[in-house]
Amino acid sequence: QHAVFGSKLGWERPNWFTRAGDEQHDIYSMGRQNWFRTVGAEHKHVREHAGIFDQTSFSKYVVRGKGAAEALSWLCANRIARDVGKLTYTQLLNSRGGIEADLTVSRLSENEFYIVTGTGFRTHDLGWMKDNVPKATDVVFEDVTESYATLSLMGPKARDVLAKATQDDVSNAGFPFGHVREITIARHRLWALRVTYVGELGWELHMPMTAAVDVYDRLMSAGITTQVQPVGYRALESLRLEKGYRAWGSDITPNDTPLEAGLGWAVKLKGNENFLGRDALQQKQGQSLKKRFAGFMVDDPDAVLVGRETILRNGAFAGYLTSGGFGYTIGKSIGYGYVRNETGVSDADLVEGHYELVIANETYPAKLALDAPYDPKNLRVKA
Questions:
Q1: pLDDT by residue (tens digit) across 71-88?
Q2: In which region does residue 314 sit, left (phi positive, over 0), alpha (psi from -120 to 50) or beta (all else)?
Q3: What gap in Å lies between CA 269 and CA 275, rounded to an integer?
């Protein structure tokens, strides 16, 4: 289907899909590259209709045993010991409270969980869990990455497509956000996870590798009337930037805490449940943070953000971007990074500052964005 592929950790993945007039390869440049407008069209399609992303390269693990819930409760900063059928976004923290990983944990049964994390972190995340699980815990970690394919169906018309492809209940009442269900598509049983990384209604569909072609064909045929199409990773990146979703390894790292990254809502500090990194976070909770994660938008169409650009606050160095790109829906370049100050960064400090970004040795005015530029109330995600 005219895909231009990239690769990550040995997996070949579609970065974008060419259209009439496009050369079917990347042409590198210092400005906007040849894929810019076509990726913008893919982005727009997901925002208005529905797209299918091949995310088979996700790293995937099954965690099982009588001590599985206990082990994951210690490893995960968020509460994962929820009812069967619930899904949780969580971080794994080190003893300093730094973010060693971020992933989703689905409870498939009383003693079995399904974990999904990024492609490039397969060895790191599995090794971290095995190294830090309490000793003598009855738990087994199994890497099932090559056993399961993942097709993510995302966009406001995603439910229309899925409802035509399966007889199972995918209504908002029957299948709420943050849940996992077993459903049937094209005679194949698979796990559907209602979660998103693009800021739209959507599902990750995890199936045996041999079922992927049948399921893909069924989704495409079911989506004819709702205009579903395949979408690549470059559009995925621009979609997540508009929603302010963090990327591990750039926006969040072992040197950043959830409090600094604006992810304190995903940490179970209010209860008494202990977890790795809790002590460090509790100590920092009452202190002034020396850095705060924030978003920046640049109006100038010539400003090409890629990450690592310098942040200026009131003309002085205040940090650098951790990631950057273009938000096609809002029509602006978007960057994220940490505003730093050794004496502390308060809400007032953030809001009252005048910001600029140094891009390719030129200084551009930038607007602070503390909320997600797109759908900050998550109304579309939970539609």
A1: 999 999 999 999 999 999
A2: left
A3: 9
Spatial distance between the Cα atoms of 65 and 74, rounded to a whole number of angstroms: 15
Paired tokens of 11: 């997996």
Which ranges of the chain does DSSP label H, i.e. alpha helix? 36-48, 68-75, 122-132, 158-165, 212-222, 233-243, 278-285, 347-352
Q: Is the pTM of this model over 0.90?
A: yes
Residue 23 CB-density burial (10 A; 0-12 exposed, 13-18 middle, 19+ buried):
exposed
Q: Are 253 and 124 in contact (CB under 8 A)?
A: no
Tell me the backbone φ, ψ of residue 246, rounded to 5 degrees.
Answer: -80, 150
Please count the helices (runs of H) and the strands (runs of E) in the chain: 8, 19
In this predicted model, what pLDDT tens digit does every residue of 161-173 receive, in sequence order? 999 999 999 999 9
Strand order of the sheet with strand 50-54?
A: 180-185, 188-193, 202-208, 148-154, 50-54, 228-230
What does the pLDDT average to over 251-274?
96
Who contacts 110 (Cβ-Cβ below 8 Å, separation ≥6)? 69, 84
